[in-house]
Specification:
The chain has eight helices and no strands. With 179 residues, the chain is mostly helical. It folds into two domains: 100 residues, RNA polymerase sigma factor, region 2, helix turn helix motif (Rna Polymerase Sigma Factor, Chain: A), CATH 1.10.1740; 74 residues, Winged helix-like DNA-binding domain superfamily/Winged helix DNA-binding domain (Arc Repressor Mutant, subunit A, Orthogonal Bundle), CATH 1.10.10.10.
Length: 179
C-alpha cells in the first residue's frame, strides 16, 4: 500500500482488530489494550503525514504499537510499587473477556488464560516474535522487517521462544481436559 493511496480511515478499518489483538497479547489486560489501541491510533493519525512508504504500512503501525506497549509496561512497573490491587484488576479484566464471548466454553477460556499468562512470561524478544508469527500470522520475512532483525534471528527467537513456552507449560496437567 503506497503512501498516496492510504487514509487514516482505511487504516482504522483494515487494522483495528488486528492491532487490538496484538496489543492485548502484549499487555494481557483487556481494558488497557483498548486504551492503548486508541492511543496508538491517535499517534498513527498524527504521524501519518510522516509515513514515507519505505516499509509495509502494518510494519510501521506495529512499531508504533510496540513502542506504546513498552511505555505502558514501564508505567505499569512503577504503578506496582504503589498499588496493591493490580492483581485484582487483572483478574477482573480476564472475567470481562469471558463475558464478551459467552459461547466460549469455560475450559477453553481457562486454557486461553493459562496460555496468555505463559506467553506473557516469555522474554520480550521471544514474546514479540511469537505473537507476530502465531497470533498475527506474519511470515518470517515480515517478522524480520517488522522487528528490524535478521531472518536467522527470527528463526532463533521463534525456536527458543517455543522451547521456553513448552518448559513453562510442562508443569500443567492438560491430559484430563477436553480441549
Amino acid at each position: 500500500m503506497t503512501r498516496e493511496k492510504i487514509t487514516f480511515e482505511e487504516i482504522v478499518k483494515r487494522y483495528d482488530k488486528r492491532l487490538f489483538n496484538t496489543i492485548y497479547w502484549m499487555v494481557g489486560n483487556y481494558e488497557e489494550a483498548q486504551d492503548l489501541t486508541q492511543d496508538t491510533f491517535l499517534l498513527i493519525h498524527k504521524a501519518l503525514p510522516k509515513f514515507r512508504g519505505e516499509s509495509d504500512i502494518y510494519t510501521w503501525i506495529y512499531r508504533i504499537a510496540v513502542n506504546q506497549c513498552k511505555r505502558f509496561r514501564r508505567k505499569q512497573k512503577m504503578r506496582k510499587f504503589f498499588s496493591l490491587d493490580e492483581k485484582a484488576k487483572e483478574v477482573e479484566s480476564l472475567d470481562r473477556v469471558g463475558e464478551k464471548n459467552p459461547e466460549v466454553g469455560a475450559e477453553w477460556n481457562e486454557m486461553s488464560q493459562i496460555l496468555h499468562k505463559k506467553v506473557a512470561l516469555l522474554p520480550q524478544h521471544y514474546r514479540e516474535a511469537m505473537i507476530l508469527r502465531y497470533f498475527q500470522g506474519l511470515s518470517y520475512e515480515e517478522i524480520s522487517e517488522t522487528l528490524k532483525i535478521p531472518l536467522g534471528t527470527v528463526r532463533s527467537r521463534l525456536s527458543r521462544g517455543r522451547m521456553d513456552l513448552l518448559r513453562k507449560m510442562k508443569d500443567l496437567d492438560l491430559n484430563h481436559r477436553q480441549w
